[in-house]
Amino acid sequence: MTDSAIISPNVSLDEISLPEPLSLGVLASGKGSNMVTVANAIAQGQLNATIKVVIYNKAQALVQHKAQAFGIPSVFCNHRDYSSREAFDHVLVDTLKSYGVNWVIMAGWMRVVTPVLINAFPNQMINIHPSLLPSFKGVNGVEQALAAGVKITGCSVHLVQPEVDSGPIIMQAAVPILEGDTTDTLHQRIQQQEHHILPSAIALAALRQ
Ligand code: GAR
User: Could you give all domains of the chain from N- to C-terminal order, each with its CATH number?
Assistant: First the structure.
């Protein structure tokens, strides 16, 4: 039994050179391993970009410490302080623009976003999701795949459109579900692939612009 992944398109960062550096803004709600993978690709000279700011919406989110370790500014925006999703997204837009961001990366951003945010960065907003979209959209993509009994799941990176976890797919990795997998073991293997594809998918999306 193998747990190797199939990645499509199977491009690596060495094959993509971006003439202009991207100014990234990362939105994250959790531990920030995907933000770290992007920051590492930049630090290693593989991805021509800068992370201008990390915005997080949960006071305890570990991503803030990881941003700090890379010297990346982080800003706490608490959605609970706003009366509507739109009002919150206006604040996100203002913050991202104030840092000169032109590409927004939702790296574990556990909030539904509105056209207020999406239209401020047309075709320059990317999301990573732990399933093979269009299957298992929403907050519990890994649990849903296990509960459904599918034998292959994975992760997807896509451009963001107003409907949750939808929009043109840039890159996917397929991950087999193994006998005895739990949400944690499966999510760990999916995350390895997320870390593999996210930096390449960002570069690919920018190249296609
Ligand atoms: C990732 O697995 C990402 O796919 C998922 O949150 C995790 C964040 O991990 N996103 C979603 O479920 C969005 N619907 P990280 O904080 O370690 O990057």
Answer: 21-122 (3.40.50.170), 128-209 (3.40.50.170)
